[in-house]
Every structure is written in C-alpha cells, then in structure tokens.
Amino acid sequence: MSDSQTIDTYNNNVARYRDLVDGQGIPKSLPLFLDMVPAGGDLLDFGCGLGNCAHFMTQHGYKVDCIDGSREMAKAANDLFGLSVTVASFGDLDAVARYDGIWANFSLLHAAKVDFPNHIAAIHRALRPSGAFFLALKLGEGEKRDTLGRFYAYYQREELETILAAAGFSVTDVTGGSNKSMAGPMEEWIGLFCRRA
User: Fold this and answer.
1) Fewer CB near the last or first residue (10 Å), C or N of the chain?
2) How many CA atoms lie within 13 A of 115 on its CB side?
C-alpha cells in the first residue's frame, strides 16, 4: 500500500477496524490455503492488517513474515499477537524463492491497477517452485475511493485470471461471497487459490 490517504485512514481507525475483523472471524479460505503449503512452511502475510490471519498461521506451526503499509496497524498486530510486522509498501517486495505460500487477503485491492501486474510478478518471484498464493479482491470495475477516503481497485474474474496467467500462476480454485466493509455497505468479493507454475 502506498496511497497516503488510504494509509492515514487505517492509521486513524485501528479500533474500528478491529471491531469489524473480530466480528468476521478467521476467513474460511485460510485453512484451505494452508492445506496447499507444506507443514511448518515459510509464509508471507502480504498486507496483514491487525495480524489475525498471521497469528492463526503461527498457531498452526508456520513461520510467518508480515508486511503492512500502516504503522498503526503494524503496531497493533505486534501488540496483540507478538508479531514482528514490517511496515512497507507493496512495491518493496523483493524476495526471491523465499516463501512456500503468500496470503494477500483484501490487501492488493488498495494498489493502483497500473501497478497491480508488477506486484503479482513480484509475488511469483518471491515464491518457491509450486508455491501457493491466495488473492482476495472486491468485484467490480475501475478505481474509486470509499466514503472513508480509501483507494480501491476493482476486478472481474476473467481480468484477474489473465493477469495471473501472464505472471506464471495457475488458478486451482475460486471462492467468493459478500462482506460488510468498514465504510458500511456489503460488497461482493472473489478469492483465487493459485499455484506457481
């Protein structure tokens, strides 16, 4: 995440975001993602927020690196779960063949569409051969800000599958649903389980 207005919104709404995340619980997609990676493997939570998912991963024996663009979210994750979150933007990912799996759950929707393929390519490079990747985004078209000022990029399934294939990923499964956002309305989303080809 590099949009300053979006980062400021998260920095200033940690408690509000925590209420939302705690109410939703651990995503059903997370155990399915963990089934795709070796037991005790090396994972990256790419845009970890408050760290709930990363904490779940560590509880199940995985070694987890965490990145988030919001310093206050990172501090809260460290305080709540003892995580060591690196405050960084999406474009800072430069690892090569380091991870068995990368979890990007409603994080890359804050990246501009023009930058999105480069982020996907960086994720591909950061994964080991046959590494797993989970990507969840909101369904729709174009880019806009919500009522809280956060930047969002919206996608359709076909558009995502084209970008993922170009980067060298195969989509092994697709999920989706609708969730309430911090801004209020219910929004449709899509989640793609991918394998590094």
Assistant:
1) C
2) 17
Calpha distance 103→45 (Å, rounded): 5
**What class does CATH assign to 4-177?**
alpha beta
Q: Helices in 82-144 by DSSP H: which ranges?
A: 116-126
| Domain extent listing, the chain | 4-177
Residue type for 96, please? V
* Residue 87 identity: V
| Parallel, antiparallel or unpaired: strands 127-138 and 186-196 | antiparallel
Please answer whether residues 116 and 90 qualify as being in contact, where contact means their C-beta atoms are separated by less than 8 angstroms: no
* pLDDT tens digits along 24-81: 889 999 999 999 999 999 999 999 999 999 999 999 999 999 999 999 999 999 999 9
Task: Name residues whose C-beta falls within 8 Å of residue 25's C-beta, 6 or more positions apart in sequence.
Answer: none
